Amino acid sequence: MVLLVLVILTTVSIGIFTWFQKRQETSKPRPAAISLARLSLIFFLLGMAYAAIRRIIFIVYPAILSDGMFNFIVMQTLFYVPFFILGALAFIHPDLKARFTTPSRGCTLGAAVAFIAYLLNQRYGSGDAWMYETESVITMVIGLWMVNVVFSLGHRLLNFQSARVTYFVNASLFIYLVHHPLTLFFGAYITPHISSNLIGFLCGLIFVMGIALILYEIHLRIPLLKFLFSGKPPVKRESRATIG
C-alpha cells in the first residue's frame, strides 16, 4: 500500500513539476527568493485547504473516510504532494535548498510550539468536532519546519570532521538494512516480557543498535558480505618489487 502511494505521489508530482518548469520559463519566478516565513504561510494555507476538503467529504459522504484504500490513495496523496514538489524544487535550486540546510531559530521554536499544540489537540480534541482538521493544519506546518530542523542538523553533522560521525555515516546503510528484522524479533519475543514502555524502549534501542553494530563489524571482516552490502569487490593491492 505504501509503495502504491509512492507511485501515485511520484506520478502526480512529475506532472505538477513539469507544469512549474514550463511556467518558470515564461514568468521567470525565483523559488530561491521565497523565505521560510512565506513558505510557512503557503503550507498553512495548504493545510487549511486539505482540512476543508476533508470536512466537505465528512459532511457529504463520511463513510468513505473509513475506507483505508481511499485514505491511502487520495487523502495521503493530497497531503504529501506539496512536500514532494518542495523537495523537487529544492533539488534543482541550490538557494532554496540552502533555506533548509541553514539552521533557523524560528523553525525550531515553531516546531516545538506546533508539537505541543499537536499533543493538546490529541488529548482534548474530539473526532466529532474539528480534531482531524486541526491536526491536518498542524501536521502540515510542523512538517515544513521539521524539514529545516532535521536537514540543517544532519547537514552540520555530516560536514563535521569526526571519526565517529564518519563511522556511523558509513554504517548507516547497513544499520538500516538489519534494524527491521532485529526490531521485529525484539517486539515479538522480548517486548511481551517488559511491562514498562520506557524500559522497553531503552532496551530495544540498545538491543537493535548493539547487535546492528556488531553485525556491521563482522561483515567488514568477511569479503563476501562486504561485497554484498557495499556493492564493490575488495581491492587487491599488488606489491611492487623494488629494483635495487
UniProtKB/TrEMBL annotation:
The chain crosses the membrane at residues 6-21, 41-64, 70-92, 136-155, 167-190, 196-216. Residues 41-216 form the Acyltransferase domain. The keyword Transcription does not apply. Keywords: Membrane, Transferase, Transmembrane, Transmembrane helix. The keyword Transferase applies. Its EC number is 2.1.-.-. InterPro entries: Acyl_transf_3_dom, Glucan_succinyl_AcylTrfase. This is Glucans biosynthesis protein. It comes from Salmonella enterica I.
